[in-house]
Amino acid sequence: MAGERGKRIYRKATNAEKQRHSRVREQIANELPEIKQRARDRLSSVVAGGVPLRQVLSALRTERERLGLSLNDIFERTGIDRAALSRLENNENANPTLGTLERYAEALDKQILVVLSDVKPKAR
């Protein structure tokens, strides 16, 4: 029958599997600090540089398309006019309010995060 799952059968790992698992855990443990540092560096660069509004609108459109949603679907979820949505996605000079961006993001089950940072670090 569709939707039914078979019973899971658990078995003990062989010595060879245990050794392989141990090697993988060691490799991950060795690489993890570097992976975490790269993630912190990337986050710092995003926080420092911010994300231009054009990129935010592009990300919203890409997510909408990935989900297979039309502008009419977003209109039904947000109440934002289809023509206005189209202008947001296609107009280089779009200037939406934060509320509009939040409504659009929520329609995609996403959220908008805003980070406030200095434009240039202050000299000490």
Structure commentary:
This protein has 2 domains: 16-49; 53-107, 434 Repressor (Amino-terminal Domain), CATH 1.10.260.40. It has helices at 15-49, 53-66, 71-78, 82-90, 98-107. With 124 residues, the chain is mostly helical. The chain is flat. It contains 5 helices and no strands.
How many domains make up the 3D coordinates?
A: 2
**How much helix, percentage-wise, in residues?**
55-70%
Oligomer description: single chain
Report the β-strand fraction as a percent range: under 5%
N-to-C SSE string, H for helix and E for strand? HHHHH
Q: Which CATH top level class of the largest domain fits?
A: Mainly Alpha
Which parts are unreliable, with pLDDT below 50 for 5 consecutive residues or more? none
Number of strands: 0
Keywords:
124 residues; mainly alpha
Give a topology summary:
Layout: H1 15-49, H2 53-66, H3 71-78, H4 82-90, H5 98-107
Give a brief rundown of this model.
By secondary structure, the protein is mainly α.
